[in-house]
Amino acid sequence: MSEQEELMDNLLNVDLEIIDIVRALQQENWNSEQLKNQVTDLLKIRDEMVVKLMSLKGNDPSCDCGHSHE
Hints:
Layout: H1 3-27, H2 33-57
Helix pairs in contact: 1-2
């Protein structure tokens, strides 16, 4: 597995974890500071992973999906 594929796999895992925590947060009526902090931390990690993935791809902010990722 290439580094890009590994990062994409890790991004998917982080996204799934974020979804699980947001669902738990919804069940807590959005009142859990611990869960809010977990989501914040995971979003920071995800952002760092996206930046790294894009740097591996090069300076071209577009990809084959047709969207701009700037």
